Each structure stands twice: as structure tokens, then as C-alpha cells.
Amino acid sequence: MFQKETLKGKKILVTGGGSGLGLAMADRFAELGADVAICGRTESKLQAAVERLRSHGTRVEYFVCDVRDYDAVGRMFADIEDRMGRLNGLVNNAAGNFLSPSEDLSPNAFRAVIDIVLMGTFNCTQHFARRLIAEKSPGSILNIVTTYVHTGSAFVMPSAAAKAGVYAMTMSLAYEWAEYGIRVNAIAPGPFPTKGAWSRLMPDEKFEQFYLQRHPLHRYGEKSELANLAAFIMSDMAPYLTGECITIDGAERLQGGQFNFITQMMPRDKLKAIFRAMKEKARKGQ
Q1: How do residues 1-58 score in pLDDT, each as one tens digit?
Q2: Cα dihedral sign for 156, 161, 162, 167?
Q3: The CATH number of the domain where 148 resides is what?
Q4: In a domain, 242, yes or no
Q5: Best exposed site among 16, 37, 108, 127 by fewest CB in 10 Å?
Q6: What residues are annotated to the active site?
């Protein structure tokens, strides 16, 4: 489907591009000829990612940035333009998530996810689009949301609320910015396990086995499957595609919220104990 230079001439920033799905997308973009910028908060992770991405022979740079900080994001976009020239693609992938009973959430815990997912997406999107609009240049924005923007889901309410906001942002801006030649789309992935993120969302192997048994395809998604979809959306093969949210989940969403199955596993008090243990493990960085 893709030719080697499908994305030649594209300059794409992937937020949260140092690992997981962000890195998989950045890798595919570079493989198809795009110049790629990645950003995140951990420099060592970004450095390792850049070494991998540069093997494709395109321009790759990393930028340490906290997408929650509006002014820092503005400085990052200025730095990217100084080092790489004007971007014409943005993938808002940076995210945060964890399992918790909603009644136990603190305001800070709720805000932590909202700030990364919703505000981070706004910060990057506005800085990116302002430059394109001022220069009368077209571009493409891709937001990574989740299947439960449509269904809701137990135990990940902050993420559901934040991602639903990003979904609404996607639809709103696709119409508003169409006259500027800026396409705005979203991908709603189902289960794509990644190191770190997935460990905070799947308590143990027993839960994982139960999850796969009830999945219509009885498997997880491959990162390459999502990366290929992202590459198509960001390419010149999709100039009429805007204001769309494409689900890629093996029909899992048709069963209801992604983490609703957890309520079937054991009594709520035992689940809370497991969630507390997971939170403590994450706090210690294990």
C-alpha cells in the first residue's frame, strides 16, 4: 500500500514519541520518508528513540517538553522551526492514565490526567495551527483518543472525560479550520499493550486472560497496525479526510466500556485493594 517516500516532504511532531504507540508512529513516519520531531519529559528515553528513528535516513530531532506548560510548548515549536523548518503535521499522543474507583479520586489525580490529555492537546494544537494560519500553509492534526470516548468506561473516568474533550475538539476544529487547509482527525485505539502504560491498566495475568477471552478477536492490536493507519491519515492519500474518528479495536467497543469487565472479576473491596497496590507500585517506579 505504501511507497517508500509516501511521507516525503512531511515534517511531523509526535508528542509522547519516546516510547509506546508514539514511537511506533514516529518510526513508521520516518520509514516512509518524513522528517520527525518527538517530544516528551524524559530525555534519556527520547535519546534512545532518536537513535532508532535515525536509522531510516530522514531528519529526526527530539525536544524535552512538558505539554502541560503552554509557554514551554510555544518555545518548543519555535525551537523546532529553527532546527527543522516549518512543521506540517502534528500527532497529539501524550497521555496519562491509571485505574481507580471514581469515588476515591482526589482532585489532583483527576487534574493530572486532564492537564496532560486535554490541556496538552490544546496547547500543542493551538501553537501548531497559529503558525500554519499565519503563513497560509496547510497541515494535518491527528489526535489519539480511545474507544471509550463513545462508551464511557469504569475505573478510568478522568481519561474518559479528557479524551472525550479531545474528541469534541477534533470535530470542532475540523470544521472551523477547514478553510485554512488544516485537516483534523482522530484515531480511537482499543487494546494495544505497551510497556509501562499497559502495566498501569491491567492488574495481573488473570485479568489479562479474562480480557482476551472476551475480546471478539481474542488478541491485542499490533502497534504496526495503528502506525499504518496513522501514516495513511497524515499522508497526501487522504486529502478529503477530516473531522473523522477512526476506531481500531477489533470490534471490542461493541461490548461496552473497555474496562467494565473488571467489575465482573471480584468484589469491589478486593478490586480497591488491587488498585491501591498498583498505585503504590507506580509511585515507586516499579
Answers
A1: 788 899 999 999 999 999 999 999 999 999 999 999 999 999 999 999 999 999 999 9
A2: positive
A3: 3.40.50.720
A4: yes
A5: 108
A6: 148
